[in-house]
Design brief:
By secondary structure, this protein is mainly beta. Helices cover about 15% and strands about 45% of the residues. The protein is built from three helices and twelve strands, in the order αβββββαβαββββββ. The strands form three sheets. A seven-stranded antiparallel beta sheet has the order 3-2-6-9-10-5-4. Strands 1-11-12 form a three-stranded antiparallel beta sheet, with no helix packed on it. A two-stranded antiparallel sheet has the order 7-8. Strand 7 and strand 8 form a beta hairpin. The N and C termini lie far apart (about 40 Å).
Length: about 160
């Protein structure tokens, strides 16, 4: 097929702006997390969301094993936090303020919204996994604008 190589696909699909999230959980008493642009609402009844972690993620297997996670929707001033959580092999939570969600996963200070989930289903998605989360609790800060990623860079909504 013409035009479906990974570089072209990343470039073309980068024209679709997305929000930026950090998915968090607790692994053996320690917080774990990763940046995830692939997030979406799936269903209102029952309340379900989607995340799409990469198969090579070192953080997702730790979170998946617990059966629960929290999706933190980042605020527009949290670009540096997004970059930190996108890296492997570092202490991502060093100096990061957070509090436990009702299910115990980290809610990151300053996030514009959070969605507390249990693992509902996990499916094959090529080089990613298609993870369905059952929503148990959620909240948002109405006045805080989200962090947006568009064409390879962070963008502002206003």
């Amino acid at each position: 097929m013409t035009g479906t190589d990974p570089t072209t696909m990343r470039s073309v699909l980068g024209h679709f702006p997305s929000g930026v999230t950090i998915v968090t959980g607790i692994d053996e008493g320690a917080p774990a997390g990763f940046t995830c642009q692939s997030f979406s609402s799936l269903s209102l009844d029952p309340p379900l969301v989607l995340i799409l972690p990469g198969r090579n993620s070192s953080s997702w297997p730790k979170i998946e094993a617990t059966g629960q996670f929290c999706v933190n929707v980042l605020a527009e001033d949290q670009g540096e936090l997004s970059t930190t959580f996108a890296k492997s092999g570092t202490d991502k939570f060093a100096g990061v303020e957070w509090s436990p969600s009702p299910l115990g996963s980290p809610i990151l200070a300053g996030a514009t919204a959070w969605i507390d989930c249990t693992l509902h289903a996990c499916h094959d998605g090529g080089d990613h996994l298609i993870v369905v989360g059952a929503v148990h609790d959620l909240a948002a800060e109405a006045e805080v604008l989200p962090l947006v990623f568009h064409r390879g860079a962070y963008a502002r909504t206003q």
